[in-house]
Amino acid sequence: DGDYLNAMYATPHSWTAFAHQQADRGVVQENQLFWDYRHQVLEQRYLRPWQLFAAVKWWELSFHLRPRRLRRLLVSRDRSRRRQGWWTARHTFMVWFAEIVEFVRRTHFAARPRPLSQWLPPPPGPLDVSGAPSLGADVGSPRGGLAPSPGSRRV
Prior knowledge:
Layout (H helix, E strand, L loop, with lengths): L16 H5 L4 E2 L21 H16 L2 H9 L3 H28 L7 E2 L40
Antiparallel strand pairs: 1-2
Helix pairs in contact: 2-4, 3-4
């Protein structure tokens, strides 16, 4: 009987294989400030974004209001454990409620989702093995910006 539930959305970061596997799916969240694990980014086949959000919130609520969990909060003989349980329940509810308020007030979805492939950067070109330092490398370093090898001194 778990105490916590953390529901997260799959986020298509460009450096992951997941993003390239999902390249044909629509992006419903065009504001990249919301491209994290707490917000829906990719379009779902059978649910609108608000329906998915409501389903996740209902799932979270039903998890936290399980009879066994409520019984523990109400009749636990250990006062310290009961106080800790109520503190956790109070803060869990505040986060849950704040996420609903944020969704209603700040979250906007694309009317016509564009494919994820249009959001991903172009694939990198062939590997440059000419010995030129890579972007961001410390040009003055004998190892091209890499960490010094064990036992070496920086000159």
